[in-house]
């Protein structure tokens, strides 16, 4: 049944979290106290993941009263799995009384050209002028911060590094993984 399948995916996501959480030992737990600290940690992890796996699985980082935690889905095979991960990420923030949270993920982005209206009819993944980024979306009681890390790939498509971002700070981010 669909509800049994959904429960099974949620259980798998929770079990995947338990496995990741049990393996996560904060390098400098006393240093992870603010949103800026968590953004720096997420950027470090994104660089590590891209260099070693060639990709960054969507990952939630949070700071709660018991210290920092990391939450990852086992897989994101379709839109329903992405929605489930976003829901579970919000539940993790509530369950662990998060004071700061960062969602790190890979994404295609497209931008409006100066003095042109943004074309919302074309998906970024289908746009000819799309750009590949690792996006860090941070939130705390003090506000939101984002960081766009442009991905540089070598000629064979392997990850080479991050470029300096030319994306200005945003007033607001929207989407299933925003406003956690």
Report on this model:
The structure is a single chain. This protein is of the alpha+beta class and 180 residues long. The protein is built from 3 helices and 6 strands. A 6-stranded antiparallel β-sheet has the order 2-1-3-4-5-6, sandwiched between helices. Strand 1 (59-64) and strand 2 form a beta hairpin. 25% of the residues are buried.
Search tags:
32% helix; six-stranded antiparallel β-sheet; alpha+beta; 180 residues; 6 strands
Summarize the structure.
The chain has 180 residues and is an alpha+beta fold. It is built from three helices and six strands. The longest helix has 22 residues, at 2-23.
How large is the count of helical segments?
Answer: 3
Major sheet characteristics: 6 strands, antiparallel
Would you tell me the structural class of the helices and strands?
alpha+beta
Q: Can you write the helix and strand succession as a string?
A: HHEEHEEEE
* Radius of gyration using CA atoms only: 17 Å
Ends distance: 29 Å
Oligomer: single chain
- The count of DSSP E runs of length 2 or more, i.e. the number of strands, is 6
What is the 3D shape? globular
Strand content: 25-35%
Strand order of the largest sheet: 2-1-3-4-5-6
């Amino acid at each position: 049944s669909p509800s049994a399948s959904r429960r099974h995916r949620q259980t798998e996501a929770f079990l995947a979290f338990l496995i990741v959480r049990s393996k996560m030992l904060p390098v400098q737990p006393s240093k992870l106290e603010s949103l800026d600290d968590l953004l720096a940690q997420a950027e470090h992890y994104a660089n590590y993941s891209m260099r070693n796996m060639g990709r960054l699985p969507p990952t939630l980082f949070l700071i709660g009263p018991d210290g920092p935690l990391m939450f990852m889905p086992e897989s994101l095979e379709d839109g329903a799995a992405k929605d489930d991960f976003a829901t579970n990420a919000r539940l993790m923030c509530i369950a662990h009384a998060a004071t700061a949270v960062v969602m790190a993920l890979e994404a295609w982005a497209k931008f409006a050209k100066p003095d042109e209206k943004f074309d919302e009819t074309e998906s970024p993944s289908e746009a000819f002028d799309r750009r590949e980024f690792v996006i860090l979306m941070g939130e705390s009681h003090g506000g939101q911060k984002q960081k766009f890390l442009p991905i540089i790939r070598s000629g064979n498509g392997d990850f080479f590094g991050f470029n300096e971002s030319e994306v200005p700070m945003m007033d607001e981010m929207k989407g299933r993984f925003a406003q956690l």
